[in-house]
Automatic annotation (TrEMBL):
Pfam families: Lactamase_B. The keyword Hydrolase applies. This is Glyoxylase, beta-lactamase superfamily II. One of its GO terms (molecular function) is metal ion binding. Gene3D superfamilies: Ribonuclease Z/Hydroxyacylglutathione hydrolase-like (3.60.15.10). SMART domains: Lactamase_B.
Amino acid sequence: MIHNIAQGVQAFTSNAFLVAGDRTVLVDTGANFDAVSHLQGDVDNLDAIVLTHTHPDHVGNVDAVRDAFDVDVWGFDASHPMVDHAIADDEEVEIGSRSYRALHTPGHKNDHLCFLSSDGEVLFAGDLVFQNGGFGRTDLEEGNRDLLVESIDRVLATADESLGELHVGHGPSVVDQPYRHIEQAAQAARLY
């Protein structure tokens, strides 16, 4: 089960995906809403928080969730004060009941990770790409358009058309031909 606990929140936040299973994980925590009460309505326990990156809209609720569920936070850069444990590029990470390959995908932010399930069916893309060919901003600190294009290309080369679910940092998840949305993002990031 993958559930966006931030769905319907009106404040500025990222999506925050609760992935239930053998290892119940929250992928990103969102910000500016009461994530703890949303989680308590869905689960009794949480095993970990996994971050796609550390922009404030993705980590604003980290402390509250960490305190309420007594969980550690995993992300690319263990020197960041909110990250307890590093996830290396190409490392396998258990999220829910699946194994995911962590892909270091800088360009939007240096510590950005995407997570592709080992069966190739599910991708957590953070702010790398969005629905309808959208892609992450590169005008913020650590943003770099050339790196972003390389990162999108890496995801395209790692995933394929069997991808069934694309869960993004903002906006709706994509379940209708998500690989094409990533292809569109690769083209758009080169043009705009």
